[in-house]
């Protein structure tokens, strides 16, 4: 397919003013000029040539004389009718404009689209023989002309017709109201959704699919039919997703009082998908990676992710669909809240402390760097060029942290009163983040206005803490200070309210000296007094990670060591161990003498503890990754960081080989046992093995090969292969080949094979990755495959930052190739270059040059343009 924009721009640049790189600003929001209470869509489906007829009932909204503007994107009108007659219309760039005299009209449009040629995977596209849609955020305008914005809510009637053999299953939102046969081997179905919804929640699926069917009885006794649609050969891999869905439905009733509102709920798995999954009303469409699992092909982490994403999309039915967003700047209204809800769900069905550790790790690994770099933006952004670039860790994960913080401040009962009010007050509406906070305030009776700055101010606050003990007065004083560094567009920052769960622990007794307090630091500096401090106190602060900040606490000698062994709050204890590790790692990377002894002792105590469970042990002894260490450095030298981390791993591996071997060998679980305990034992088995291999690569390789060969589940198999992939041993290639031979026909497992090699900590990883990009099973058009190779490599700190710049060249080349097909997915590779200014001068210059090369490429998408130009600014 010819690139329409490039052709037009070359033919007549001056008559085609570029609307591509214009920033949309939140402060320019205006209610829609025209509403569309009802829409009827008719699809004549065909992979190459689909005809879409849209019938819109439009209504003037307010007193104005502006024309009707219908968004379009790479579509052309074959015909346009107003109230049944040919009418005057014009194109303004991609939009269709019609002057209407009255306050109401019926608009009929007809367009032709090609799902098979749709490589952007936005709008109606083909994937593995089926047709499916993705409309969030602005994909609906690639299907039909429409005011494609979330505050225009419509009732949908959909009729679709297609070949009955190719597309035996025809699905859309709501209820199926009719179906029948048509001429020439075609058939049709009609669907109607009783709930008004924004266009981004529209969905359609046509394909040769089979369903895992089940049902759920809601709290009011209604029966809901559930179906998970996949290719028939994948049916045996759908049970975990189904079980997760039923758990999620029950959980939302119990915890939020939210009942499902239709008589059926469908999930469809597709192999080509830009993101994880999509919450279309009653027709969720999923990346198959978040549906399909069995013990042989999916790891414990995959199982957990499936439960998490199934729950996330289901929870959107209330936080997203029933109450939607007024505009895309409010994206965190639904995403931050829904992530918070899925995190709570996963904690409840698993281990709360381990889940908290995992969530904070993601936040620190992805969101903190984002918030400190050139792409930093508030949870509620102020402007965007391409909204697809704002599905970020800040909007999702920091957004969830902000809601968690509000829930902590309110306590469970008041928080629930607030969310109840939010759902009832805004049901059927398009709301804002301010509306959400207001509902929490009105429902709880608590003034939360000071916390709103968390939505508008970007950057991670830095808190310094110093505890002073006055033994004579039996008192202690905690001196706190906060600071937020400038971020793009926000040079000066205001102080923020920072609620820190804090307790003092007796250095001798190891006991909490008083009940935990929630200290809200809301001034630049503040001092807090503690009385009855009868022994030397240790500071346990930001417990449970009550607020997303970086805490730098002044520690007296031995304090972290003691906290690492005594703090009864699991997250705080984990923090103390991690902080000990971080000290050694940073010192090593700076070339200072790094004392690994305290870390080795803390890891030993953790492994030997009888009170800690294996999953917690595994998390606690995991060494922070290179990029986390990089965040702590003034100037990033990837080689020095890598060497420091390797030497700490080696010290632990050699110093604790006995204890690690014990943890590695701890057994008594079946590979098919998915209980939290069994998962924890498997996780510790592999984490311990990784450290053993760091101490003794030969022994590690033998043990890893044995684990690999013996494995009756993917967790053990992938864990072992991941360790072998970084070693220079003969077992490595043998295992990689065996894995490939066995799983080459399973795309999701093959993704793992690519990812494991792209993640390898080896000096030749760049060469391996270049070879893999030429492998017959590599394809740039499948987002999962592209992410497994290029995305994983971009996150492999040491290899990507290879001093010769070949890692940068590889990622830039593949990113530019991908951009021609799928800009949204290509743009997600850019942040790997984002923090170039922090690197040692040679790499910084190489990265800058690479960004310059990307931005100069002809025909660049606005998605990539926005990310690269901001990275250079
Ligand atoms: N809204 C989806 C979610 O649940 C994410 C998504 C965004 C999917 C855009 C596809 C496209 O988080
Ligand atoms: Zn979501």
Give Rg in angstroms: 28 Å
Could you tell me how far the N terminus lies from the C terminus, measured between alpha carbons in angstroms?
33 Å
**Beta fraction:** 15-25%
Mean pLDDT: 96
Strands of the biggest beta sheet: in what spatial order?
Answer: 6-5-9-3-2-12-15-14
List the total number of helices. 28
Helical content, roughly?
A: 40-55%
Attribute tags:
41% helix, five-stranded mixed sheet, 873 residues, eight-stranded mixed sheet, alpha+beta, binds phenylalanine
Task: Describe this protein's structure.
It is a single chain. By secondary structure, the protein is of the alpha+beta class. Helix content is 41%, strand content 21%. The protein has an 8-stranded mixed sheet, with no helix packed on it. Helix 27 (841-855) packs antiparallel against helix 28 (862-872). The radius of gyration is 28 Å and the shape is globular. Phenylalanine binds at residues 134, 136, 274-275, 277-279, 312-313, 316, 335, 391.
How are the secondary structure elements laid out?
Elements lengths: L3 H8 L12 E2 L8 E11 L5 E11 L7 E3 L6 E6 L2 E2 L3 E3 L2 E4 L5 E10 L9 E5 L2 E5 L18 E11 L5 E4 L2 E8 L3 E13 L5 E4 L2 E8 L5 E8 L8 H18 L7 E7 L6 E2 L4 E5 L12 H16 L8 E2 L5 H19 L2 H21 L10 E2 L8 H18 L1 H15 L3 E2 L1 H12 L8 H4 L5 E9 L4 E9 L14 E9 L10 E5 L3 E6 L6 E5 L8 E4 L5 H8 L3 H20 L7 H12 L5 H7 L5 H6 L6 H18 L1 H9 L10 H20 L1 H14 L3 H12 L4 H14 L3 H12 L6 H9 L9 H12 L2 H4 L5 H16 L1 H5 L13 H15 L6 H11 L1
Parallel strand pairs: 2-12, 18-19, 19-21, 22-24, 25-31
Antiparallel strand pairs: 1-23, 2-3, 3-9, 4-8, 5-6, 5-9, 7-8, 10-11, 11-16, 12-15, 13-16, 14-15, 17-18, 20-21, 25-26, 26-29, 27-28, 27-30
Helix pairs in contact: 2-3, 3-4, 4-5, 4-6, 5-6, 6-7, 7-8, 10-11, 11-12, 11-15, 13-17, 15-17, 16-17, 17-18, 17-19, 18-19, 20-21, 21-23, 23-25, 25-27, 27-28
